[in-house]
Amino acid sequence: MRTDLLTLVQWLSPAFPIGGYAYSHGLEAVIYAGERSAAGIGAWIEGVLRHGSGQADAVLLACVLRGGDAADLDVVARAMAGSRERLGETVDQGAAFARTVAALTGRTLPPRALPPRALPVAVGEAALGLDLAPEVVVAIYLHAFAANLVACATRFAPLGQTEGQALLAGLHPVIGEVAAWAVGAGLEDIGTVALGADLAAMRHEELDVRIFKT
How many CA atoms lie within 13 A of 198 on its CB side? Predict the structure, then answer.
């Protein structure tokens, strides 16, 4: 079994200490507003993957894997965050990811150092050292992103564990499609139109009681 694949799976697993469990990407606000069904939550996550930050992150990650300038792509990633909370989510998780991977791999000094970046850029920069196809890296990244949102839903909505896993399995074709498209796309192809998700993230900032940071 290829250890590089296992390394990437470890980096993007829920056990990796970047605090992903604390972020709902605005989904908490959606559930708070009344969306509690597996079908509705699944459609919301699919929309984010196809037309929102999932799509944008996939392209940014692919650009890094193709050798794009990580510092410039980090600026783009930060600029594309549609709200204060979304910016904090990608920057905080990216910094934690880079710090932990650097400690594990010894990449703490130039020219191989892993500086803090927005999450998709940080993952791409770290994964450049792995012998993996870009489509595989992007697909596993998107799967981890979707799995975290499903986990948020099972904790906050009346969504059972089995129902949540069925929801995630149903998203596998979407993840594959977005990953396959992203590896051939450039920054000019990013076209995020998940306005409902962006508005949900903004509404989340004003909730009186919250269990997630975003």
Answer: 11
Report the first-to-last Cα separation within the chain, whole angstroms.
Answer: 37
- The tally of domains found in the chain comes to 1
Write out the H or E segment, with its range, that includes residue 49: helix 38-51
Between the alpha carbon of residue 81 and those of residues 56, 75, 89, 123, 137, the distances in Å are 10, 10, 9, 17, 22
Residue 207 forms part of a structural domain: no
Answering whether pTM is above 0.70, one says yes
Report yes or no on 158 lying in a domain.
Answer: yes
Range of the domain at 182: 3-13+23-201
Q: Calculate the CA dihedral of residues 173, 158, 156, 46 and round it to 10 degrees.
A: 20
- Kindly indicate the confidence band of residue 175, based on its pLDDT and cuts at 50, 70 and 90: very high
